[in-house]
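cron nightly-structures :: item 1 of 1
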Amino acid sequence: MGLTLNRLFARSGPPLRSGDVLLVEPAARHYEAWSLLREASREHLEPFEPEWASDELSRGAFRRRLKRYRRDRWFGTGAAYLVERAADGALLGGVTLTNIRRGVTQSASVGYWIGLPFIRQGYASEALGAVLRYAFDDLELNRVEAACMPRNRASRGVLERAGFRQEGLARRYLMIRGVYEDHLLFARLRSDAPASVRIPDERPRIVEPPLVAPPLETIPAAPPLVATGPPPTAAEGHAV
């Protein structure tokens, strides 16, 4: 079997590094910084994301988010990261692989967001480059997909610089702030020519620890099977 169990199931590993950023797995210790950054960036993020819940930024909602991330990791259907500045650990945003499909598809969806104080500084491109390297080299995926609204020109630029190609338009694709919005569909293939933003190779290869199952009471219920059709939205959105 070509894939090790850690690769097949997107098991936890060391942080991913790309230039000035580190991608780290979300944990309870991140709540304060995450909630403050999301609140400070609310007007910047909401136009591009599904409607926020009334308790979106509460500690309880963050715990539920962590539980979902752990479940997705365990079953190999997703891999979520927070983006930190390598120099001082400041929280910059987030990037997430979701809807990982195996079998004949070997693909996933990617989403990302950068907090308002840190936009237009190249952090989204660095984070996307790092997660693409993880998707193609560690998870050995064939294809990574993304979707963004036509008016989100900043996010389109990030995708295009990372080598994504526009493949079509999905009409009324996702409900954003109570309205079904059209989305442009993009994809990057493992075999695509190098992008203008190189997928970085600035971290040691993952040394995979033995696969040890957690206690049964900590393993969440298995998610339903996911069809291989158009992917759902990933992460919180595509705001950069």
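cron nightly-structures :: done
The chain is about 25% helix and 25% strand.
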